[in-house]
């Protein structure tokens, strides 16, 4: 079974940067469409970004567009989320998730919805505070 492990979270000041990693094991990551989600205390889980299996197609939530960049290195079985110009409202637990690349649930409209994804990591905390 595919397993996902996030890392790279931490405490950063507003305006700072972090790079999250999502490392996969069990199956080749190149067979999977990957999403990043986040959940703040008392809030619903929110889709942040997603990337196709080849890396050729990406999508971002409006709240992070222009500040976050998703990428993947299939040779390293890892997906990244570069987060720049961080704001206090970016504070949340960040999760990566995966679904098989040929899933009929994937579309430009649905790809930032959590119901599309079958595999989830345990999350990494990101705190943006001065």
Sequence-ordered SSE layout with sheet pairings:
Elements: E1 3-7, E2 10-12, E3 18-25, E4 32-39, E5 46-51, E6 58-60, E7 68-73, E8 78-83, E9 92-100, E10 119-120, E11 124-128
Parallel strand pairs: 2-11
Antiparallel strand pairs: 1-3, 3-8, 4-5, 4-9, 5-6, 7-8, 9-10, 9-11
Structure description:
With 130 residues, this protein is mostly beta strands. 0% of the residues lie in helices and 47% in strands. It contains no helices and eleven strands. Strands 2, 4, 5, 6, 9, 10 and 11 form a seven-stranded mixed beta sheet that branches. A four-stranded antiparallel beta sheet has the order 1-3-8-7, with no helix packed on it. The radius of gyration is 14 Å and the shape is globular. The chain starts with a strand and ends with a strand. The mean pLDDT is 95.
